[in-house]
User: Which sequence fits this backbone?
């Protein structure tokens, strides 16, 4: 084959592979990395999924009632969720406390402050009453800590859960990939 022809063919092949990598990346990510069977069949895994589903029910109720009293039953403050200084300032303002009082707060307190700030008189948002179905993708449990990836219909999320006195609590949830 002519050398002048080989060079453009190699460039075209590399360009096609690069395009396939970007275009098919999410598909392959979902299909291969999160193939079925990555959720352990254990009592801990069942408890973790139940806590995650209950958390979404509680968040749905709180988005309508602004009642955060059930949050401590599914969320917890740990060092796994670190608030930035801006987040700490906002939390302190909403909770009407000093900045030093929220120095070691975590996900539970941040969620409480967020929903309190949305209460009547604050900026309201329209809320759907549709039930959210969680699609669990992967779960790694290491003693009293778990890392869970799941899809809530709006985003691929990553949650950290901790086990305290035999009960699992959500210590952090962060979006990995937002989709519509």
Assistant:
């Amino acid at each position: 084959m002519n050398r002048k022809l080989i060079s453009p063919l190699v460039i075209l092949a590399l360009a096609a592979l690069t395009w396939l990598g970007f275009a098919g990346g999410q598909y392959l990510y979902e299909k291969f990395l999160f193939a079925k069977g990555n959720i352990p069949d254990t009592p801990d895994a069942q408890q973790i999924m139940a806590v995650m589903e209950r958390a979404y029910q509680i968040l749905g109720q709180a988005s309508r009632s602004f009642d955060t009293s059930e949050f401590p039953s599914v969320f917890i403050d740990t060092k796994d969720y670190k608030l930035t200084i801006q987040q700490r300032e906002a939390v302190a303002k909403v909770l009407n406390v000093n900045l030093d009082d929220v120095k070691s707060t975590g996900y539970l307190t941040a969620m409480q402050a967020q929903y309190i700030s949305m209460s009547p008189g604050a900026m309201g948002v329209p809320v759907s009453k549709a039930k959210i179905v969680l699609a669990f993708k992967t779960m790694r449990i290491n003693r009293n800590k778990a890392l869970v990836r799941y899809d809530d219909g709006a985003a691929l999320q990553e949650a950290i859960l901790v086990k305290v006195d035999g009960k699992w609590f959500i210590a952090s949830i962060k979006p990995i990939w937002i989709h519509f």
